[in-house]
Design brief:
2 strands, alpha+beta, two-stranded parallel sheet, 76 residues
Length: 76
């Protein structure tokens, strides 16, 4: 087996639908992933996961990714 990691993925429209499809596929194939970006730049300049340095999830993309991560081990 070879380790595979999907990295720096997101979607520019601040939504989570494409990302949801991708992480569901990765989960079903035991592939790791790292979403992008963890800077509070605001979603108007591209996909971001947080709105501030306290880690508040960005509506849509950040909230969706956080909700997905909470369904994964070790949070089950």
């Amino acid at each position: 087996q070879v380790p595979v990691v999907l990295s720096e993925f997101g979607q520019d429209n601040c939504g989570f639908d494409y990302m949801q499809t991708l992480v569901n596929w990765a989960d079903s194939h035991d592939i790791g992933y790292l979403a992008w970006t963890w800077n509070p730049w605001g979603c108007t300049t591209g996909a971001v996961l947080i709105t501030d340095w306290a880690g508040t999830p960005e509506p849509g993309v950040g909230e969706g990714y956080k909700a997905h991560l909470l369904t994964q081990s070790p949070y089950l």
